């Protein structure tokens, strides 16, 4: 008879694989949505992408289904959006190495770079501004740079969440890694709601297209 620890390990692996074993690709589109941030540092401006992903999971009713996948060093949850399937991903790696988790998950789920959404903070937009854009450079964001490198593509659509740029360049790092102020925290619920609405609307619109053609448009809230 196997020791209890071996039985527990076998049971854990069986459950994890049962949750995340790939089924035949659904009839509709499949998308990967990755929230970029630093695990273990919730509430910071740099981890606002993780906050949006958490809000998205609650909206889609899968907030209690996160499962750790050691193959891509991330937490995954799978949700339905009409005829589309969304794979939500929270990398367990630090921001600068998050692309390794994103690229591995894309490989596991058979997705191209155009089918991978990145949700991340944006210094050059004021707090409260949200934009969806397909493709482009990292614009100085190390998490996006890691994803571009690991996916070997600039084509990923991004949901960019404005956190504002401080007046003095010497304070940028402290600003990004710092927590939202009390005044900013009052704005967060509405910001998370608007960001989630914008992301879901964009995914719905692209899911209805017959093909994934290039779309370089940028959508800004009023």
Question: How is the secondary structure organized here?
Answer:
Blueprint: H1 4-20, E1 30-35, H2 48-59, E2 67-69, E3 74-81, E4 84-91, H3 98-108, E5 116-122, E6 130-134, H4 142-151, E7 157-162, H5 172-177, H6 182-207
Parallel strand pairs: 1-4, 1-5, 5-7
Antiparallel strand pairs: 2-3, 3-4, 6-7
Family: Belongs to the PTH family.
Keywords: Hydrolase, RNA-binding, tRNA-binding
Enzyme class: hydrolase
Can you walk me through this structure?
The chain contains six helices and seven strands, in the order αβαβββαββαβαα. By secondary structure, it is an alpha/beta fold. The protein has a seven-stranded mixed sheet, with helices on both faces. A hairpin with a 2-residue loop joins strand 3 and strand 4. The termini are far apart. Residues 1-19 and 212-222 have low confidence and may be disordered.
Termini separation (Å)? 65 Å
> How does the overall form come out from the CA principal axes?
globular
Number of helices, counting only DSSP H or I runs of 4 residues or more: 6
Write out the strand line-up for the largest beta sheet, numbering strands in chain order.
Answer: 2-3-4-1-5-7-6
Pfam family, one: Pept_tRNA_hydro
Keywords: Hydrolase, RNA-binding, tRNA-binding
Protein name: peptidyl-tRNA hydrolase
Enzyme class: hydrolase
In short:
Helices cover 37% and strands 19% of the residues. It has helices at 4-20, 48-59, 98-108, 142-151, 172-177, 182-207; strands spanning 30-35, 67-69, 74-81, 84-91, 116-122, 130-134, 157-162.
């Amino acid at each position: 008879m196997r020791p209890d620890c071996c039985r527990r390990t076998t049971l854990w692996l069986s459950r994890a694989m049962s949750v995340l074993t790939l089924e035949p690709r659904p009839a509709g589109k499949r998308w990967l949505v990755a929230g970029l941030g630093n695990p273990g540092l919730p509430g910071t401006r740099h981890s606002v992408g993780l906050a949006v992903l958490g809000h998205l999971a609650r909206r889609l009713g899968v907030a209690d289904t996160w499962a750790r996948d050691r193959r891509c060093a991330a937490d995954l949850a799978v949700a339905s959006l009409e005829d589309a399937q969304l794979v939500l991903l929270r990398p367990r790696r630090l921001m600068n190495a998050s692309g390794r988790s994103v690229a591995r998950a894309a490989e596991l789920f058979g997705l191209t770079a155009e089918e991978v959404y990145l949700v991340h903070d944006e210094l050059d937009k004021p707090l409260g501004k949200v934009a969806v854009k397909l493709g482009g450079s990292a614009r100085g964001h190390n998490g996006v740079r890691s994803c571009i490198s690991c996916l070997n593509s600039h084509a990923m659509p991004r949901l960019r969440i404005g956190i504002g740029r401080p007046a003095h360049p010497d304070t940028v790092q402290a600003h990004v890694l710092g927590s939202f102020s009390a005044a900013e925290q009052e704005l967060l619920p509405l910001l998370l709601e608007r960001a989630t609405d914008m992301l879901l609307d964009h995914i719905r619109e692209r899911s209805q297209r017959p093909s994934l053609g290039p779309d370089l448009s940028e959508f800004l809230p009023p």
